[in-house]
Design a protein that fits this description.
256 residues; mainly alpha; single chain
């Protein structure tokens, strides 16, 4: 399915940016900026603002919010469409995020800003251990970008299953952009991550979201399954203006 900007050149640019940022940090660049930002936000965070940001930061909680919401939406679409394809979306999204974000965090071994041990800001820190280790890249930001792409896709499919128009392109874009942007700001301002952690999470998350968005979920060849549960489930891009008016009839036919 189409993504914007079109083509793989943008994905290559994102990957190049992630590699360049990682190499720069490994060579000691930008570490002073990270420390300055983390120390400044720690000194300029009144209690009411802290709790507001803490609540908003839950928008990026993978297991508690993102996956739970995605699984619920996928279950509803699968039930409404009597199709296994929404479950496939969850499985692929989980695998894609699991084999990228976690291994990178373990390999790069960076402590979080509030780590009390030595050399808290460097990559490949042998002293980094415990819950304040594995800070780079930010899993909150990367997961938010990937899973809100999934949520937007499933929510549009659910609306179609009720013969309603899917998310408009503007609403679709807002759902994919605003929550990750909030997570980026709150994660950095709460000093859960260095600012370069959040930037790296942004670059990685955009790559993952674009990969997931490209997959033609309704056209993936599946073996013939009992009761036709391999049927399409309306898992395509947001409709252009006026396009949704004919889409429900096509999807009703696919459910028959």
């Amino acid at each position: 399915m189409p993504v914007r900007p079109r083509g793989w050149w943008f994905d290559a640019a994102l990957l190049g940016g992630l590699v360049a940022l990682t190499v720069a940090l490994a060579r000691g660049h930008l570490l002073a900026l990270d420390v300055q930002v983390a120390d400044w936000v720690d000194a300029n965070r009144p209690a009411p603002l802290y709790w507001t940001l803490r609540v908003l930061n839950y928008l990026g909680q993978g297991g508690q919010v993102l996956m739970s919401t995605s699984i619920l939406l996928a279950a509803l679409v699968a039930w409404r469409r009597r199709s296994v394809r929404p479950v496939l979306v969850i499985v692929v999204a989980f695998v894609v995020t699991f084999v990228t974000i976690g291994p990178l965090k373990v390999w790069l071994d960076r402590a979080a800003p509030h780590f009390a041990g030595p050399d808290r800001e460097i990559l490949f820190n042998p002293a980094a251990d415990g819950p304040l280790a594995m800070s780079y890249p930010s899993g909150h930001v990367a997961n938010a970008l990937a899973w809100y792409a999934v949520i937007a896709l499933l929510l549009s499919a659910l609306l179609r299953s009720f013969d309603r128009p899917p998310l408009s392109p503007r609403a679709y874009a807002a759902l994919r952009v605003l929550p990750p942007a909030i997570v980026f700001v709150t994660t950095t301002y709460l000093a859960f991550h260095w600012i370069t952690d959040s930037v790296a999470g942004l670059l990685l998350g955009l790559i993952l979201a674009r990969v997931l968005t490209r997959i033609p979920w309704d056209a993936i060849p599946l073996p013939h399954l009992p009761n036709g549960i391999d049927r399409p489930a309306g898992l395509d891009r947001p409709a252009a203006p006026g396009e949704w008016a004919v889409r429900p009839r096509r999807l009703r036919a696919s459910r028959a």
